[in-house]
Amino acid sequence: MAESWDSGTKEAVKQIPLLTSIAGPRDKQEWQEKRLKQELQSLIKYIQLNKQTDSDWFTITSNKDGTHWSGKCWGGKICLTVHFKPLWAKNSPHFGIAHALCLGLAPWLAAEIPYMIGEGAIKVKS
Amino acid sequence: MEAEGAIAGIENIEQRISKMQGEMQGINARLEAAVKLADGSAYPTASAAKPAAAKKVQEPRTKETAMSAEVVDSNPYSRLMALQRMGIVSNYQAIRQKRVAIVGIGGVGSVAAEMLTRCGIGSLLLFDYDKVELANMNRLFFRPEQSGMTKTAAATETLININPDVELEGHTLNITTLNGFDEFKRILSDDTDKSRVDLVLSCVDNYEARMTINQVCLELNQTWLESGVSEDAVSGHIQLLQPGITACFACVPPLVVASGIDERTLKREGVCAASLPTTMGIIAGLLVQHALKLLLKFGEVTPYVGYSSLKDFFPTMSLKPNESCSNGLCCKLQSSQPTSELATTNPAADVDESSPFHEDNEWGIEVAPEAEAASSPALGEQALPEGLSYSLPVQQPAQSEVAPDAEEHMDNTEPSLEDLMQQLETASSSNKGDSKAH
Ligand SMILES: [Zn+2]
C-alpha cells in the first residue's frame, strides 16, 4: 500500500501527469478523444522523465483502439489485483497506465530482479 | 462503404456461428442422451448393480410439449404447477418462455442451472471457459468421471438428462478477454442488437468478470443478478442490478459481508480459496429464488441479501444508483428513468436502512473504510446496515484533493491521437531498454 513505496518512487509518480477523463474503451468517443490521449501523454512524459534520469526501463505501445498494450521490461508481471484496487479506487480517474507501471512494475522489478540474480534464476547479459 | 458492408456481413456471420456453436453443445448432449436411451446404457454404474429392475426407472423421459397440472407420479411438473393452485404464482407455465444466461458454471452457477432446469425453464445459456477438475468435487453437481470435460459440455450433458424440455446452449468462453467480451455481448443479443435473454445470473468468482457482465448488461439494458461466496466459504450475497434503477456494479465498491475475513471479491493468484457445498448451495438457492420471483412475478425481490453463516445472519438493503457513477452509461440510464419506477423498486428498503447500528459494532462496520470516503456526498445517504461494509475505498468525485489542478497537468488541446501514438512508439523504440531486454 501507499506507505510501502520508497521516496524515489513517490517522487517519480508525482511527476507523471494526472488524467482527468474517466472514460473507458467502451465509451468509444470519449475514450478515443480524451482518456486514451491522456494515457498516451502521461506515458510519453514518464518515458521522457526516465530517460532524463538514465533509468529508461520499459517500452510500451498499443493497438489503435488502445485496448491491447504490449511492450518490454526486465521481466516480471504487475500485480494489479488485491494491492492495487484500493489505490486505484481512491485515485480514479487520475491514475493511468503510466502510474501503474511506476507504482507497480517498477518497484516489483527493483525488489525481485536482484533476488532472482542472487538465486541464479536469471543472469546479467554482458 | 462496400468494405463496411462486408465487415458488417462478417460480423453477422460470426454472430450466427457463435450462437450455433452454443446450440450444438446442447444438441450433442441431447443426441448422446438419445443414443444411451436406445442402447440402454444410460447411468452405467447403477444399471450394472441392479440390471433388470433399475433399467425401467432409469430411462430418460421424453420431451413434454406443455406443462401438465395433472397430479400423477409420472408428471415431472405436478409439484411446480401446484404453486398456481396454491396462489403463489399466477402463471407458472410462463417459465417455458423464459431464457436465462448463467455466467460461471462453478459451485454456484452449476447448481443454479440444475435448479432452473428442474423448474422447467425455457432455455439456458451457459458460459464458462474452465474444465471440470477433481478439486471441484467438494461442491455439488459435477461428477468425478466428468473431470477434464469443459464445464459447459459436462453441464449440458447432465442437464439434458434431467429435463429434455430445456433448450441448452453451452458457450466455452472467457468473457474478460478482448474478443470474449465482444462474443459474450453478441451471444446475448438478437438480430436487432437487443438482449435476447430475460435475465442474466452472474456466478463468477472475480471482480473483472463482474465488471464485464456489468458493462454488457448496461449496454443491453438488461437486468441481472449477481452472486458471490466469500473466500473463507462462510458468507455470501446476492444482488439485483437493474440498469438505471438500482446501483450498477461500478456505482459503489463491492460490499463485504462481515465474517472475520474480507471477501474483497478479488481472486488472489496462488492462494487457494476455501469452499463448502453448503454455502454455495444456499447462495445458489437464494439466487434462483430471486430469479423465479423476477421471472414469474411473485413475492418481493430484495435488492441485496447478504448471508453470514457463522452468525446465521442475513443483512439486507437497497442500493440506489450513484449519480456520479464512473460508468457514463449508468448515469445516462439513470437520467432516462421515469421517477415512478425509481420509487417502486425497493420493497424492503425502509426497514433495513432505518435499522440502528449496534453500539458495540459487533459486525465491524466500516461505512467509510478510508477517511475520504465519508465526504462522498453520493454515498452519504446510503448508510450500510450492520454486517456490511465496502471492500474498497469509495470512489472520489472528480477534481478531488488528489489532483486539484489536474487540468493544468494534462494538455487536452492537441496533438492528435495518431501523433501521440507515433510519439509513444518513437519514445519506446529509442528506448535503450529495448536492446537490453533480451
Ligand atoms: Zn453505476
Automatic annotation (TrEMBL), chain A:
Annotated coiled-coil segments of the chain: none
Entry-linked Pfam families: UFC1
GO biological process, one term: protein K69-linked ufmylation
Record-level GO cellular component terms: cytoplasm
Keywords for this protein: Ubl conjugation pathway
GO MF annotation terms: UFM1 conjugating enzyme activity
Family: Belongs to the ubiquitin-conjugating enzyme family. UFC1 subfamily.
Protein name: Ubiquitin-fold modifier-conjugating enzyme 1
Species this protein is from: Apatococcus lobatus
From TrEMBL, chain B:
Residue numbers spanned by region Disordered: 371-438
Domain spans labelled THIF-type NAD/FAD binding fold: 77-326
Biased composition (Polar residues): 423-432
Biological processes, Gene Ontology terms: protein ufmylation
CDD domains hit by this protein: ThiF_MoeB_HesA_family
Annotated GO MF terms: ATP binding; metal ion binding; UFM1 activating enzyme activity
Membrane is among the record's keywords: no
GO cellular component, one term: cytosol
A Pfam family matched in the record: ThiF
UniProt KW keywords: ATP-binding, Metal-binding, Nucleotide-binding, Ubl conjugation pathway, Zinc
Highest taxon above the source species: Eukaryota
Similarity annotation: Belongs to the ubiquitin-activating E1 family. UBA5 subfamily.
Protein name: Ubiquitin-like modifier-activating enzyme 5
Species whose genome carries this gene: Apatococcus lobatus
